[in-house]
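Dear support,

I submitted the protein below through the web form. The confirmation email said the job was done, but the results page showed an empty box. After a refresh the structure appeared. I'm attaching both so you can tell me whether what I see now is the final result or a partial one.
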Amino acid sequence: MHSRVVLLLSLAGFASAASLRATDPLLVLIAAEYAITPGVAAAVITAFAVSYGVFQVLHGPLGDRIGRIRVVYAAAAVSALGSVACAMATSHAMLVAARFVTGITVGALIPVSMAWIADMVAYERRQAVLARFLIGNILGIAFGTSAAGVLALWFGWRGIFWVLAGLFLLITLLLWRELRGNAAMHAARGEAPATFVAAFRNMADLLARPWVRVILVTVFIEGALFYGALTFVAYDLHQRHGFGLAASGALVSAFAAGGLLYAVSAGRVVPMLGERGLVLGGGALLGTAYFSLALAPGAGLAVFALVLAGAGIYMMHNTLQVNATQMAPETRGGAIALFAFFLFSGNSLGVWLASRAVDGWGTRPIFAVAGVGLVLLSLEFRRRLANRVATR
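What the results page shows now:
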């Protein structure tokens, strides 16, 4: 039963990741339609990332109280409606607003699913199971970027939102059937806080724990550096290397191939490298990837760099995720909500800063800063992991 539910939650993660990256290859079209610059058009990405991250602080406690699968079910249903609103937006401001509202519910799908998996799977098996769950997220990134570009050629930039609406509706129906057929899926796990005020107080109390602060600050910086730069890869391929929208979106999906390579080999790689080895290796791959993107003379090196970036980020981020699931087992929903909040707050800041930089300086400085920053971040987090092990 757990394997079937993990597969279904992975599908929800697929839809969430696809929605998150769906507008990356569409900036040129959106900018052209509304006579604005790509940096201004990127507000549709920033708005989605902001709501995706900020409202995590509600999703975790809600899952603790009413059951995690119920939250995923409700979020998928509302996300279908939000995707329809994006497809029907008649102005840039309306599209930004629709993306903001949709991000509120789409943002619940991955972290609440992770909390459910953490409830059900022992810590020693959790990294491998979460890696399998992440396959859906990885494929969703590939689908979001490539399908958005292809659909834009045939149906305009709105096409991807109609597809996402149908996908969220399918997930809603499958989860409804799962909830009907298994009464145990309705229950929350563990002791839920008596009120939402108590839940927020519990989350605030977590910030007093030094290791929790290390995890949250690390994932915030990771989100800002990695996703701020990744957002403009499709734009860079289009502007600097001359690829069409469909081709640039498809090439960005090479990022997912690297992540998938890690996910399917995690069962062997994780025991071999250990947490510190994964973080160090991930940082090295990320640094190499972003410097290669900055210097790439053509698409060949850019595609190879994206494969490295996909493998590198999932080596590093999966390690952060596993540590996040164990930060506070007694209030896991709130702990993972905080983790997701910091990740996507960093994502939002990174996209906002990059969107300001790209209009003035282009994409190369963004990639270079991300490369240096991610290497330094991996070295520091590896040092923190070593110190934590030494003091246990």
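Response: this is the final, complete result; the empty box was a page-load delay. Residues 39 and 355 are 5 Å apart (CA to CA).
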